[in-house]
Amino acid sequence: MTTALKLKKGDTVQMLTGKDRGKQGRILDARPRDGKVIVENLNLMTKHQKPRPIRDSSRMGGSQIAPGGRVELAAAVAISNVMLVCPTCKLPTRIGYRFKDSKDGQVKVRVCKRDGCGQEIDK
Description:
The protein has 123 residues and is mainly beta. The protein has one helix and eleven strands.
């Protein structure tokens, strides 16, 4: 599944399904090849990590061992389970495209498809 994503790193999205349904967060990483995104503080998983030595610890001047224990990490979410939140109307929306004239020619810009809004998402 190698398609171009309509979502970008830094976009605010709302979860549509799962335990975090209805919550909003910022995209930290987009993975177009997998069709997934990582959303900040949503879809958290607990990983048990052993204490381990730090690489290049002599340069850091701190402790020689990274602490172990339970670490919470954000897991990847399928693109179909999130929806972009429009920065203007603050509601989840589908994404449309419009061509805008600029000095370099025409530029493709994402727009809100919500009725009555239609504002540009990329400024």
